[in-house]
User: What shape does this take?
Amino acid sequence: MRIAGGWARDGAVQDQIDDTVADAVLSARAQLPLGEGLEHCEDCGEEIPERRRLALPGTRTCVGCQSERDARIASAGINRRGSKDSQLR
Assistant: This one.
């Protein structure tokens, strides 16, 4: 069974998926902490547990404060669907 693909060339959907995954990996890597970590959270001053510091070298925040930071991050992904509706936005 063949589904009509419009003007898209063969493999275009997989290319979009691959690009989306690559963008997500780059975004996640960019959010990893760099540099020397801290023993106390730079936001609240609470001690960062040693297990967290060992698991995530370079960490500068406790779990609670990092969770709050993560909740504020807005996703600004690229819409690669190419549908007429997405092109009109």
